[in-house]
Amino acid sequence: VALKFAADAAYMVKDWKASTGVWETLDKALFERVYTAGAAHLEAAYAWQKAKEEELAATPDAELGGFVITERLEL
Residue 26 half-sphere exposure, CB side, CA atoms within 13 Å? Predict the structure, then answer.
């Protein structure tokens, strides 16, 4: 969709599913709002994940002993 809008600013997607039971006409302005919100969400999620990984890496192994899975499950 981003490529379509880049090629034609007047491009529209009729009947774009915004959420359950909510259908919109997706124009360039709405797409940019959705894209910006999605990018901000991903940035926040990655920042949270990085902070948790750093917290885990800084935790002494002795404190993690009860949480480490030592057996491999065969599926």
Answer: 17
**What is residue 23's DSSP assignment?**
E
CA distance 42 to 51: 14
Q: Half-sphere exposure (CA, 13 Å, Cβ side) for 24?
A: 11
pTM above 0.70, yes or no: no
Tally of CB atoms within 10 A around 5: 19
Q: How many CB atoms lie within 10 A of CB 26?
A: 20
Which pair of tokens denotes residue 15? 């009947």
Give pLDDT tens digits for 40-63: 999 999 999 999 999 888 888 777
